[in-house]
Amino acid sequence: MRKGRAVVGRIGENAAMATRAEETVRNPIPEFEDITAAAERLKGIAHRTPLLPADALGRMAGAKVFVKAENLQSGGAFKFRGAYNRLSQLDAEQRKRGVVAWSSGNHAQGVAAAGQRLGIRTAIVMPRDAPAVKIENTRAFGAEVVLYDRYSENREAIGEKLAAERGAIVVPPYDDPYVIAGQGTVALEMFEQARALGYELDIVLAPCSGGGLVAGCALALHRLSPRTKVYSVEPEGFDDMRRSLASGAREQNRPSGRTACDALMAPTPGELTFAVNRRLLAGGVAVSDEMVFAAMRHAWQELKLVAEPSGASALAAVLHGLVECAGKTVGVVLSGGNVDGALYRTILK
């Protein structure tokens, strides 16, 4: 990993970004070799999830579309990759102290599952209105769950205070080089699986909250396939990465915003993730809840996959033509499948 340094990037043809002041990045920026190292650590631990042809969607888009089914990952989402990669790097003394994380649910399950496997005590700060299935699953992995109000309390402050009191290690959900490298193994597998089928990826779309998944994917594909365009997909009202790519600075979301995509509600892009994404992403798009619900129904009807709202956001972008895919080979990350049964039944109806 490179040491912290100033990073300047350009998205598309936005030349104005070249004149903006450089943003200092305090954390080391992961490199491709960090992603391949993460893949070795995860071998036999994380599932190598399938890359499935989405033929019905491909016909609609006039493209060849593949879906990376990370809803089938340990913990029901891609987050296990980054969490395990981070926790596996703790030394014996750090492991004894335990870890603290904050999450709306998928990172929570990823950290809890990794902690259970590695014998590390975990405490997770989660919003009271998180899907019940995510809270229950996190506890089932042996984690202590600390609930908070996402609209009136600060999860980072709660987590940092808890970690300081216990001497525990903080495991951020996205702004950590090991977490980003672990998430980058998603694109590493996609590239290898698509090539094994005789295809080269022209476009990859991934859901985005703080930006760890899409940053890891962009880093991997920048080395493996520089021609591949990578896009972030966010919910309307929480499209801070899309707006940040356009402005060249980290934008904030309105605290009063609401979306069914509970896992994609970060207030602003991560410092480290934005340093990567501003250089490497082709752009970002935003989807409505209605678009996401339609994508969840499509995943169930056509792919026989259960997707949560956040996990289906990139699928929604292709389904509704928000990125020009005609004549291209497109990879879509279906990032999670942790959805409450009552909500899922309502959406399917």
Please mark out the parts with pLDDT under 50 across 5 or more consecutive residues, or reply none: 2-24
- Compute the average pLDDT: 92
Strand order of the largest sheet: 3-4-12-9-10-11
State the end-to-end CA separation: 48 Å
CATH architecture of the largest domain: 3-Layer(aba) Sandwich
- Annotation, overall tally of beta strands: 12
Top-tier CATH class of the largest domain: Alpha Beta
How many individual domains? 2
Rg result: 19 Å
Instruction: Classify the secondary structure makeup into a structural class.
Output: alpha/beta
Strand content: 15-25%
Q: Helix segment count?
A: 14
Main beta sheet strand tally, sense and closure: 6 strands, mixed
What does the model show?
By secondary structure, this protein is an alpha/beta fold. It folds into two domains: 245 residues, Rossmann fold, CATH 3.40.50.1100; 92 residues, Rossmann fold, CATH 3.40.50.1100. It is built from 14 helices and twelve strands. It has a six-stranded mixed beta sheet, sandwiched between helices. A four-stranded parallel beta sheet has the order 7-6-5-8, with helices on both faces. Strand 9, helix 9 and strand 10 form a beta-alpha-beta unit. Helix 5 runs parallel beside helix 6, helix 8 crosses helix 9 and helix 12 packs across helix 13. The longest helix is centred in the middle third of the chain and has 20 residues.
